[in-house]
């Protein structure tokens, strides 16, 4: 099938590549000329495991094209995806300017019947707005082209996006039009072979489903971070508590890891946007507000531990902190809303210096922070330790899991480790003569 995808970010590029991989003819459109030029030359703008070879192979075979020319992409496309960003607006609601700009573009270029599929995370009612916008543009051109708008929220996880796209848990389709559902079933058939993963519902429910999924996951994280706080206060170890509750299948093991708070481009903005939707409909979203508030507080928690260890901010002036991990989670270079950003800023505000290493996010950090005298971005974890007084681990990359504690003891001037992801056993760290501060491990605190 011929497909056009607007937006070549994490969602658009990965979805487009996976659709091409199973044989569809895909044209990816972006307004970012540099990104499109780069992609044509095989430069992949994001880090996702497995993505680069797939993009190159499908591009070389002619099934995956890149353009800034919306008209070219829309001509001949039976299915047109919207996969552009929906960042938070000033009041926390989703900013629909990019989604509606694409809708206008579609209305200006559409010549033949097509299904417009909204993959961006958008508030309930957006499909109606997209429909009205396209219809308005078609009317302005005096055109009468049949089109439908379907909601198809995306559930891929950064860091495992290709895998999630090739083997989705579920494919949610929101539409009341059986013909549209039938076309999309055909499009997704290669991803839906072993058992039926397609869940069909009305458009509004599909739009809400995406927010409910992210809000549920964020809730689990904030819940666990709250338990971690209590554990710290009462002298319990949240890691024992986690093992004790995760074994209950009603609770499960996923998303019950306490840490330095959730970040990324989705949870923070989606929890806010859902709360906004509730408020706009006269509801007081008590739980969502608490989930967000707990997370905001938690992002500052590593620095609180730093203050507790050093007995205040005054001593931090002139200290050097090694930071392991900048991305908001492992296996991605994405630093949007990352907890590391809060910690870095707090350390800088206190007059400390930072030597940071992340396996994938150093370029992104360079782009965000530019050149500054109190930041050195390093090429290796070991290099970040040179001349450092303390180490803080902020992202749980696998390569940080088994450090040589004896070596850390030698190099860290103040022999202290702040672990924002509970990667280590307190006994192992302390046996090496290093003070260990982790999340919710009252035993060591
Ligand atoms: P992104 O910021 O990585 O990419 C968006 C892309 O859209 C950019 O390349 C931008 O240049 C392009 N764009 C903006 N306006 C355009 C236009 N008019 N025409 C063509 N391209 C345009 O965003 P993302 O992370 O891929 O997220 C896209 C949507 O998917 C968001 O709504 C997000 O909430 C949702 N989502 C994201 C994830 C994730 O893990 N990143 C997962 C599920 C859903």
UniProtKB/TrEMBL annotation:
Q: Which GO terms describe its molecular function?
A: NAD binding; UDP-glucose 6-dehydrogenase activity
Q: Where does the record place the UDP-glucose/GDP-mannose dehydrogenase C-terminal domain?
A: 322-426
Question: What InterPro entries does this protein map onto?
Answer: 6-PGluconate_DH-like_C_sf (IPR008927), NAD(P)-bd_dom_sf (IPR036291), UDP-Glc/GDP-Man (IPR017476), UDP-Glc/GDP-Man_DH_C (IPR014027), UDP-Glc/GDP-Man_DH_C_sf (IPR036220), UDP-Glc/GDP-Man_DH_dimer (IPR014026), UDP-Glc/GDP-Man_DH_N (IPR001732), UDPglc_DH_bac (IPR028357)
Please state the pathway this protein functions in, per its UniProt record: Nucleotide-sugar biosynthesis; UDP-alpha-D-glucuronate biosynthesis; UDP-alpha-D-glucuronate from UDP-alpha-D-glucose: step 1/1
Query: What is annotated as the active site?
Result: 266 (nucleophile)
Instruction: Name the residues that bind NAD(+).
Output: 30, 35, 86, 121, 158, 269, 336
**Bilayer-crossing regions:** none
The residues listed in the UniProt record as binding substrate, with positions renumbered to this chain, are 155-158, 210, 255-259, 263, 329
Q: Name one GO biological process term.
A: polysaccharide biosynthetic process
Q: Does the keyword Oxidoreductase apply?
A: yes
Provide this UniProt record's keywords sorted from A to Z. Answer: NAD, Oxidoreductase
Stored Gene3D superfamilies:
Cytochrome c1, transmembrane anchor, C-terminal, NAD(P)-binding Rossmann-like Domain
EC number of this enzyme: 1.1.1.22
What SUPFAM superfamilies does the record point to? 6-phosphogluconate dehydrogenase C-terminal domain-like (SSF48179), NAD(P)-binding Rossmann-fold domains (SSF51735), UDP-glucose/GDP-mannose dehydrogenase C-terminal domain (SSF52413)
Catalysed transformations (reactions) = UDP-alpha-D-glucose + 2 NAD(+) + H2O = UDP-alpha-D-glucuronate + 2 NADH + 3 H(+)
Tell me, in a sentence or two, what this protein's role is.
Answer: Catalyzes the conversion of UDP-glucose into UDP-glucuronate, one of the precursors of teichuronic acid.
Q: Can you tell me which family this protein belongs to?
A: Belongs to the UDP-glucose/GDP-mannose dehydrogenase family.
Q: What is this protein called?
A: UDP-glucose 6-dehydrogenase
* Organism annotation: Luteimonas wenzhouensis
């Amino acid at each position: 099938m011929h497909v056009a995808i607007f937006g070549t970010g994490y969602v658009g590029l990965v979805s487009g590549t996976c659709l091409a991989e199973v044989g569809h003819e895909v044209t990816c459109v972006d307004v970012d000329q540099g990104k499109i030029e780069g992609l044509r030359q095989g430069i992949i703008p994001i880090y996702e495991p497995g993505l680069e070879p797939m993009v190159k192979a499908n591009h070389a075979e002619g099934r995956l094209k890149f353009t800034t020319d919306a008209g070219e992409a829309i001509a001949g496309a039976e299915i047109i995806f919207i996969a552009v960003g929906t960042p938070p607006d000033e009041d926390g609601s989703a900013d629909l300017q990019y989604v509606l700009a694409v809708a206008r573009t579609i209305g200006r270029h559409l010549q033949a019947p097509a299904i417009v599929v909204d993959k961006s995370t958008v508030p309930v009612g957006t499909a109606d707005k997209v429909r009205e916008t396209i219809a308005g543009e078609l009317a302005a051109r005096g055109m009468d082209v049949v089109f439908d708008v379907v909601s198809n929220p995306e559930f891929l996880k950064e860091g495992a996006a290709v895998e999630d796209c090739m083997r989705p848990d579920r494919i949610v389709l929101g539409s009341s039009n059986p013909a549209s559902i039938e076309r999309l079933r055909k499009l997704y058939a290669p991803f839906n072979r072993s058992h039926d993963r397609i869940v069909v519902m009305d458009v509004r429910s599909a739009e809400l489903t995406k927010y409910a999924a992210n809000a549920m996951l964020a809730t689990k994280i904030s819940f666990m971070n709250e338990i971690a706080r209590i554990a710290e206060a009462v002298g319990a170890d949240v890691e024992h508590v986690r093992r004790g509750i995760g074994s209950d299948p009603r609770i499960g093991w996923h998303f019950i890891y306490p840490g330095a708070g959730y970040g990324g481009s989705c949870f923070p903005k989606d929890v806010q946007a859902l709360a906004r939707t509730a408020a706009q409909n006269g509801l007081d979203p008590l739980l969502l507000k608490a989930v967000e508030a707990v997370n905001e507080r938690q992002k500052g928690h590593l620095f609180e531990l730093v203050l507790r260890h050093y007995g205040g901010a005054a001593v931090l002036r002139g200290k050097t902190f090694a930071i392991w991990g900048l991305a908001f989670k492992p296996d991605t270079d994405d630093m949007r809303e990352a907890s590391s950003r809060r910690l870095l800023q707090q350390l800088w505000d206190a007059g400390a210096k930072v030597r940071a290493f992340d396996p994938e996010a150093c370029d992104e950090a360079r782009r965000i922070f530019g050149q500054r005298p109190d930041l050195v971005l390093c090429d290796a974890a070991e290099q970040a330790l040179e001349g450092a007084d303390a180490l803080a681990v902020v992202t749980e990359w696998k390569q940080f899991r088994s450090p040589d504690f004896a070596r850390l003891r030698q190099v860290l001037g103040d022999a202290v480790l702040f672990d924002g992801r509970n990667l280590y056993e307190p006994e192992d760290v302390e046996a090496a003569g290093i003070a260990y501060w982790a999340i919710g491990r009252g035993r060591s605190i």
